């Protein structure tokens, strides 16, 4: 939920302008051989902008840039480049692939899609194709138009009067832009929806937590193309919650808690970092992968492969993966709340709302950083420093161990410590902060962890004590006059798995209970045992078979390569292991927010690979109808057995707020793991070195007194 005071907005616009000049000026004039999946450089963004503005295909002005991103080459070409056509080995030395950009722009009241070819020197570009979007939905909201919109209310007389009647100082007011969602209708032509948004306002005063102090009951509608307020309603008046006890800044929360502070510590690596970064390619232990940045998806991980020490070769695991959408519907049906059904990636852009990571806090001292540049509304590059960090995690965990006491007079203990590599981004699209981790393990696993923290979105109310709530208030009373509204979080990942090759299948190993019949012919035995369970294997043939509710019953969900087998005859594969946060949506199927994000009814969807199918909510998510979405694509029921397939996994959480979540929420995490399952011939980390006999490790604690 975007927010900005008028003064802060102007300051940020100035900073963005300076950064864009700096980014363009710092672009190197000479280009090394770029990886085909590298994000666009500031130099390339500048060239794309010039080509679009010079093209006669979009003569209307003003023209605003809403998305500029890499239009990646065809997958077959990237694989040939990366692996030399063999599926193994390191990066090829073949010539670079063509660099192209996808641009979504607004001009003349229309959304335009342009594909732009970038010259090999990166300093010029040519528009290859142009199309006008005729369907429902609009592109990502730009930061600049949100800043411009929130500057309107202080000069709008009805709002000024509402603020005055509530006894609020206008200088303390900050406003936010909220997408309107979709509630029927839509499409192009006469009567098509306008590109509008809602605006709500808050009172900051002495606190930084202005979200805790809403001006409840006042709603404005802003036409983003005309940049004018076109609707206003002051429906009801509630007390503005007090500022006391809402701030979260150091020095504003009271004295530090004596005796509850953990001793300070820092990770120390005497031999330096254990990973190597070459451009955007990271190599660590047995892993190699590419790190990219996208203004909508944020972090993009590509070409993840693991070295099989026993086989002496590098083996593919993941072609490309990223967060496709974040759906956050709130559960209050009243006028000021019913439309708060956010699609954070498609409406706001996760990359746009990723801010600089704080060394030593967001990421440990041993971290390295990637920047994340993007195109501003004017098409000029805006630099984004320290948007992604990479670090080795020494958490005191165990990779494997065993103690054997079965030998007389002898105790055998073997323990191997677990060290992992984390790729992290933090996204703050308004009140919430999402910590998005990719964690690579030497065992061959990849863990995906989403951690929620930040500020609750609250509603002003007359209630001051829970005993006063006699009807459904749609939330929890967390402070006087402050209701934290029930809501959901659904984070959907797009994971193009390439398990030891391109063609894979989706397998459900369903745990099935059996009675012991005593007949060996049916799997029984003549023993006192009465029951047991076994496995029923189902291979998904089509997309309808590829959907799964992980809470429906015990099962292992695997992605296998039917063309590759271990020496024992098993298909090589990886299995999906949920780790908390497995909620699915309980909204009615005919509710418009659910129709837009109907894929949240199940955690697992499997589709055939399509370069065009990247965004679960569609390319144009703002006011989308669900017609272009993961669910809509899957209705074609295409074949997925022994095909190039994509896993879409949705991590879900029903959030009932509690008082401990206020004024700032302690981190709450959930995730899932992709774990080798008959991928290796044996434990791939059997031969890792034991720890030093003296107990020394790379994780040292430094104390101050």
Automatic annotation (TrEMBL):
Keyword Hydrolase: no
InterPro entries hit by this protein: Cu_Am_Ox_Cu-bd, Cu_Am_ox_TPQ-bd, Cu_amine_oxidase, Cu_amine_oxidase_C, Cu_amine_oxidase_C_sf, Cu_amine_oxidase_N-reg, Cu_amine_oxidase_N2, Cu_amine_oxidase_N3
Residue stretches making up the Copper amine oxidase N2-terminal domain: 35-121
Annotated GO biological process: amine metabolic process
Every Copper amine oxidase catalytic domain range: 268-685
Domain annotation Copper amine oxidase N3-terminal: ranges: 139-241
Record-listed E.C. numbers: 1.4.3.-
Catalytic machinery residues: 344, 432
Name of the featured protein: Amine oxidase
């Amino acid at each position: 939920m975007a927010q900005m005071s008028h003064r802060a907005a102007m300051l940020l616009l100035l900073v963005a302008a300076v950064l864009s000049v700096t980014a363009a000026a710092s672009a190197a004039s000479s280009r090394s051989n770029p990886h085909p999946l590298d994000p666009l450089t500031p130099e390339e963004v500048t060239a794309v902008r010039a080509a679009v503005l010079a093209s006669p295909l979009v003569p209307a002005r003003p023209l605003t840039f809403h998305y500029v991103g890499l239009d990646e080459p065809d997958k077959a070409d990237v694989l040939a480049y990366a692996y030399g056509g063999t599926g193994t080995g390191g990066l090829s030395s073949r010539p670079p692939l063509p660099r192209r950009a996808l641009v979504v722009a607004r001009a003349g009241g229309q959304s335009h899609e342009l594909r732009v070819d970038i010259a090999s020197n990166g300093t010029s570009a040519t528009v290859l194709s142009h199309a006008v979007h005729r369907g429902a939905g609009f592109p990502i909201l730009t930061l600049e138009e949100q800043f411009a919109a929130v500057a309107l209310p202080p000069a709008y007389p009805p709002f000024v009067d509402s603020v005055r009647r509530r006894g609020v100082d206008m200088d303390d007011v900050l406003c936010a832009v909220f997408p309107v969602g979709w509630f029927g209708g839509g499409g192009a032509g006469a009567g098509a929806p306008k590109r509008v948004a809602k605006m709500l306002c808050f009172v900051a005063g002495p606190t930084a937590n202005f979200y805790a102090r809403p001006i409840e009951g006042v709603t404005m509608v802003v036409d983003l193309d005309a940049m004018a307020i076109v609707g206003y309603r002051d429906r009801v008046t509630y007390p503005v919650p007090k500022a006391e006890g809402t701030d979260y800044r150091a020095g504003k929360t009271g004295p530090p808690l004596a005796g509850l502070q953990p001793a300070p510590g820092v990770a120390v690596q005497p031999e330096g970092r254990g990973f190597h970064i070459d451009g955007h390619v990271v190599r660590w232990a047995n892993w190699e992968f590419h790190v990219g940045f996208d203004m909508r998806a944020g972090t993009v991980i590509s070409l993840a492969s693991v070295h099989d020490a026993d086989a002496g070769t590098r083996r593919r695991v993941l072609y490309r993966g990223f967060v496709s959408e974040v759906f956050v519907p709130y559960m209050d049906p009243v006028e000021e709340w019913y439309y708060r059904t956010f699609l954070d990636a498609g409406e706001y852009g996760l990359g746009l709302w990723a801010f600089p990571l704080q060394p030593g806090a967001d990421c440990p001292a041993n971290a390295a950083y990637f920047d994340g540049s993007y195109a501003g509304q004017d098409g000029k590059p805006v630099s984004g420093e320290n948007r992604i960090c990479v670090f080795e995690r020494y958490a005191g965990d165990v990779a494997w161990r065993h103690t054997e006491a079965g030998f007389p007079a002898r105790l055998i203990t073997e323990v191997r410590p677990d060290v992992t590599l984390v790729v992290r981004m933090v996204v703050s699209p308004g009140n919430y902060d999402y910590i998005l981790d990719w964690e690579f393990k030497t065992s061959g696993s990849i863990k995906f962890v989403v951690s929620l923290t930040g500020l609750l979105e609250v509603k002003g109310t007359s209630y001051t004590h829970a005993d006063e709530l006699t009807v459904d208030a749609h939330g929890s009373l967390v402070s006087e006059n402050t209701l934290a509204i029930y809501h959901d979080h659904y984070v959907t990942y797009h994971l193009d798995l390439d398990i030891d090759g391109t063609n894979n299948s989706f397998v459900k190993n369903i745990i099935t209970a059996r009675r012991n019949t005593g007949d060996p012919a049916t799997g029984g035995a003549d023993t006192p045992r009465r029951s047991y369970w076994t496995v029923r294997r189902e291979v998904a043939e089509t997309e309808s078979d590829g959907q799964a509710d992980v809470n429906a019953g015990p099962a292992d969900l695997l992605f296998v390569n039917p063309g590759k087998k271990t020496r024992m005859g098993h298909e090589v594969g990886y299995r999906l292991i949920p780790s908390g946060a497995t909620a699915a949506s309980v909204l009615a199927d005919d509710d418009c927010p659910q129709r837009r994000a109907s894929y949240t009814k199940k955690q697992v969807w499997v589709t055939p690979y399509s370069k065009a199918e990247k965004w679960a909510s569609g390319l144009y998510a703002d006011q989308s109808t669900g017609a272009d979405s993961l669910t809509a694509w899957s209705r074609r029921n295409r074949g997925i057995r022994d095909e190039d397939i994509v896993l879409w996994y949705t991590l879900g959480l029903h959030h009932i707020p509690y008082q401990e979540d206020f004024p700032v929420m302690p981190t709450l995490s959930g995730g899932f793991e992709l774990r080798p399952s008959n991928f290796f011939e044996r434990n791939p980390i059997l031969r890792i070195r034991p720890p030093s006999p003296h107990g020394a490790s790379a994780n040292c604690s430094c104390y101050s007194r």
